[in-house]
Design brief:
By secondary structure, the chain is an alpha/beta fold. It contains three helices and five strands. It has a single domain, classed as Nucleotidyltransferase, domain 5, CATH 3.30.420.
């Protein structure tokens, strides 16, 4: 079993006069095909006036992950990093980073996706951003 921090960002499309995004980071203990334990979840909103670039995505992910009190490799979908080769994405992070490979990593990313999307939708409704 190993520790990972699965991440997902929802909202990388324009809404009103900017980009309202929510990043979710989920610290889990995983085996090859199961999420064995959820250690911690962090949700963090971000607002940008212009479309996020890959360096912005790295900053958003790192700002969210630094609030996780567990260690682990950051795992994301390749599309979240604008389909950059893994070595390029890895070189941009201060912590260990990789693209998802195993079923458990996929499941953890799906969990992060549901959390980020639901949190963003709730915040947009509550803050009357739409």
């Amino acid at each position: 079993m190993w520790d990972i921090i699965a991440v997902d960002i929802s909202g990388r499309h324009k809404i009103k006069n900017g980009y309202y995004m929510v990043c979710a980071a989920v610290s889990v203990v995983s085996s090859a095909d199961h999420v064995e334990k959820v250690n911690q979840v962090k949700i963090k909103p971000f607002w940008m006036d212009s479309a996020p670039q890959v360096t912005d995505v790295v900053r958003i992910i790192e700002d969210t992950v630094k609030e996780i009190k567990y260690d682990g490799t950051i795992v994301a979908e390749k599309g979240d990093m604008y389909n950059k080769p893994e070595w390029v994405a890895t070189s941009m992070f201060s912590k260990n980073f990789k693209y998802q490979e195993s079923l458990s990593e996929r499941l953890a990313i799906e969990m992060a996706h549901h959390i980020s999307l639901s949190a963003r939708n709730l915040l947009i409704q509550e803050l009357d951003i739409s």
